[in-house]
Amino acid sequence: MIKFLLESYENLLTLSTIDKNAGKVQITIAPDYLADCQVILADLGKRFPMLQIFEDETKSQANY
Questions:
Q1: What angle do CA 52, 57, 61 make, to 5 degrees?
Q2: Would you say 29 and 41 are in contact if contact means Cβ atoms under 8 Å apart?
Q3: Pair 50, 44: CB distance under 8 Å
């Protein structure tokens, strides 16, 4: 459900599933839209449990 909500904001961000069993996703945000996306994610965080995970830059969807 969150995927569809986030992707409805066209061209702001993309969401990729890293581990569907753990509910781990990667959100990629265009630098010009970082502030807008932070507001959107903060609002969604009030409705859905979310945890921001900081990982090494070399770990992305393509590198799992």
A1: 75
A2: no
A3: yes
